[in-house]
Write a structure and sequence with these properties.
Layout lengths: L7 H6 L7 H20 L5 H7 L4 H29 L1 H20 L4 H30 L3 H32 L2 H18 L17 H19 L5 H27 L14 H30 L5 H7 L1 H12 L1 H7 L2 H25 L7 H23 L7 H29 L5 H23 L16
Helix pairs in contact: 2-6, 2-7, 2-8, 3-4, 4-5, 4-6, 4-9, 4-17, 5-6, 5-8, 6-7, 6-17, 7-8, 7-11, 7-12, 7-13, 7-14, 7-16, 9-10, 9-17, 11-16, 11-17, 11-18, 13-16, 15-16, 15-18, 17-18
C-alpha cells in the first residue's frame, strides 16, 4: 500500500520516525533474532539440562515445544492488543516479560520452574513483542523493494538466530553453563530495550478497540490440543487421537464463531476476509512449513548427535555453523533477489534447495560417521530457507491494507510459530520415541521433514507468478 492510498484523515494522525526507518530496523531485527534463538539454542543443551534438572530428553522437548506453542496460541490475540495498547508499548512490554522469563530460567531448580520461565513467560513475552515488529516494518516501508529489504533483515536475523542458536548455545553451555545461555538472552533483551527508545509508532493506539476474548480462547484451545496431541504420538495413541479431534473441533468452532460475529456486525478476533485470499493462504502454508523444516531439522540433528553419536554441546553447535552461513548468505541477498526474481520463483527455489539438503543429510550421514557428512546438507537447508523466508512474509504482509496489518501480522506469526511447534513435535516425537534404534530413527524423522517439504513446494508452485500485484483487496485478490 502506498502513502497516496492512505485516507487523508489517517495520514494526518500518522507519525513518521524522526530518523530514517532503516536506522531503526536494528531493534526489530534483534528482537526476532533472540526469539528465534530461544527456539533452537536449547537443542544442544538437552543432555546438560536433563542431567542438571534430573529429567529426560522428552522433558526438554516438552519445554521447547510449549515455548513455541504458547507463542503460536497468543500471537493472534496479542496482535489485536497492539491496536488497543499501541505497537511500541506492546513491543517494550513483551521484551520486559521475556527478560524476566530468561532470568527465571537461568535460576531454575527444576523442570517446573524452567517451564514457567522459558515456556510461559518467554512465550507470552514473545507473543507480545513479535507482531509489532512486522506491523511497524510494514507501516514504515511502503514499496515492495524497501519492504523486502526490511523483511529480509528481520526474517534473516530470525533465521540466523534459529540456525546459530545451537552454535551459540553450545559455546556458552560448554564454556560456562546452560544457565548462562539464558543470562545471554536477558542481556540481549536489555540492549534491545535501550535501542528502542527512538522508535515511533506511526499510528496512535485506540483504547476503545473491541477485543474478542471468546475467539482468543477458542483459537488457543484448538491449537494447543492439536500440538499436544502430536506430542502423544508413540506413547499414547488414544490420547493423541482424542486431542487431535478436540483441536480440530475447536478450530472449526472458532471459524464459525468469528463468521457469526462478523455477520452480527461485531469485530471478531480475526476477519474472515483474511482466509478468502488464496494467495495469502498459500503463502501462509509455505511460512508454516519453512519454520517446521528449520526448527525440526535443528532438533532432530541435535538430538541425534548428542544421544546417538555422543557429541558435546559445543561440537554439536559447531556443526550447525554450515546452516548459519548458508542462511546468512541468502538472507543478506533478499533485497537484491527481490529486484531480479518474482516472489514465487524465490519461494519455489528455496524449497527445492532445502529438499536437496535434506536428501544429503539422509544419504551422507547414513554413509559416513564423519562430521563433514553433515556440512553440505545443513548448508543447503540454511541457504534454501534463508532465500524464501523473506518473500513468503512479503507476500502475506503486502496483500492487505494498513487497517488489517495487526490481524494479518498476528496470523502470519502464529502460523510460523505453529510450524516451529510442529517441527519439534512431529519430527522430534518420531526421533525420541525410537531413539534407541539410532540411525533408523534419525532417517524416519528426516523423511517426515522431507514429506512436509514437498507439501510446501506444492503450495509454492500454486502461487501466482506475481503475488505482489494481486492488489490489497483481501476478498477479491
Amino acid at each position: 500500500m502506498t502513502e497516496d492510498s492512505v485516507p487523508a484523515s489517517e495520514a494526518l494522525i500518522r507519525e513518521r520516525p524522526l530518523v530514517s526507518p532503516r536506522r531503526l530496523i536494528l531493534p526489530l531485527a534483534l528482537a526476532q533474532f533472540i526469539c528465534s534463538f530461544a527456539g533452537s539454542n536449547m537443542n544442544v543443551m538437552i543432555n546438560d539440562i536433563s542431567e542438571d534438572l534430573d529429567t529426560t530428553v522428552k522433558g526438554v522437548q516438552t519445554v521447547i515445544t510449549l515455548f513455541l506453542l504458547i507463542m503460536a496460541i497468543l500471537m493472534i490475540p496479542c496482535s489485536k492488543l497492539t491496536d488497543r495498547w499501541g505497537r511500541k508499548r506492546c513491543f517494550i512490554a513483551g521484551l520486559t516479560l521475556y527478560g524476566i522469563g530468561a532470568l527465571l530460567s537461568a535460576l531454575s531448580p527444576g523442570l517446573g520452574v524452567l517451564i514457567l520461565g522459558n515456556s510461559v513467560l518467554e512465550g507470552v513475552g514473545t507473543a507480545l513483542l513479535i507482531p509489532p515488529v512486522y506491523i511497524l516494518a510494514t507501516l514504515w516501508f511502503s514499496d515492495l523493494t524497501s519492504r523486502a529489504w526490511a523483511f529480509g533483515v528481520i526474517s534473516g536475523l530470525g533465521g540466523i538466530g534459529a540456525a546459530a542458536g545451537p552454535l551459540i548455545g553450545g559455546v556458552i553451555t560448554t564454556g560456562i553453563s546452560w544457565r548462562a545461555a539464558f543470562v545471554f538472552q536477558a542481556l540481549v533483551v536489555t540492549t534491545i530495550i535501550l535501542l528502542s527508545r527512538r522508535l515511533v509508532d506511526p499510528l496512535p493506539a485506540d483504547p476503545t478497540r473491541p477485543f474478542d476474548a471468546a475467539g482468543a480462547v477458542l483459537s488457543g484451545v484448538g491449537m494447543f490440543c492439536v500440538v499436544f496431541g502430536i506430542l502423544q504420538a508413540g506413547s499414547n495413541n488414544v490420547l493423541m487421537t482424542v486431542f487431535l479431534v478436540l483441536g480440530a473441533a475447536f478450530l472449526v468452532w472458532f471459524f464459525l464463531y468469528i463468521r457469526s460475529r462478523e455477520r452480527a456486525g461485531q469485530e471478531p478476533l480475526l476477519s474472515t476476509a483474511l482466509f478468502r485470499n488464496r494467495t495469502t493462504n498459500l503463502a501462509l502454508v509455505t511460512q508454516n512449513i519453512q519454520w517446521l523444516l528449520l526448527i525440526g531439522t535443528s532438533f532432530v540433528v541435535s538430538v541425534f548427535l548428542q544421544t546417538v553419536r555422543g557429541y558435546s554441546a559445543i561440537k554439536t553447535g559447531v556443526i550447525f555453523t554450515a546452516a548459519t552461513v548458508g542462511l546468512l548468505i541468502s538472507s543478506l541477498g533478499a533485497e537484491r533477489f527481490a529486484k531480479r526474481r518474482a516472489q514465487k520463483t524465490l519461494i519455489v527455489a528455496g524449497f527445492v534447495i532445502t529438499l536437496v539438503g535434506i536428501g544429503l543429510l539422509l544419504g551422507l550421514v547414513r554413509a559416513s560417521s564423519s562430521i563433514a557428512a553433515f556440512v553440505p546438507g545443513l548448508f543447503l537447508i540454511g541457504f534454501g530457507l534463508g532465500g524464501m523466508l523473506t518473500p513468503s512474509v512479503n507476500v502475506v504482509q503486502s496483500s492487505f491494507p494498513e487497517e488489517l496489518q495487526g490481524e494479518i501480522s498476528g496470523l502470519s506469526r502464529s502460523v510460523s510459530n505453529l510450524g516451529s511447534s510442529f517441527g519439534t513435535a512431529i519430527a522430534g516425537t518420531i526421533l525420541v520415541s525410537v531413539v534407541a534404534t539410532g540411525n533408523r530413527a534419525y532417517a524416519w524423522a528426516m523423511v517426515s521433514l522431507a514429506v512436509f517439504g514437498l507439501i510446501g513446494l506444492g503450495a509454492a508452485l500454486l502461487l501466482p507468478a506475481n503475488p505482489e500485484r494481486q492488489g490489497t483487496d483481501p476478498v477479491n485478490s
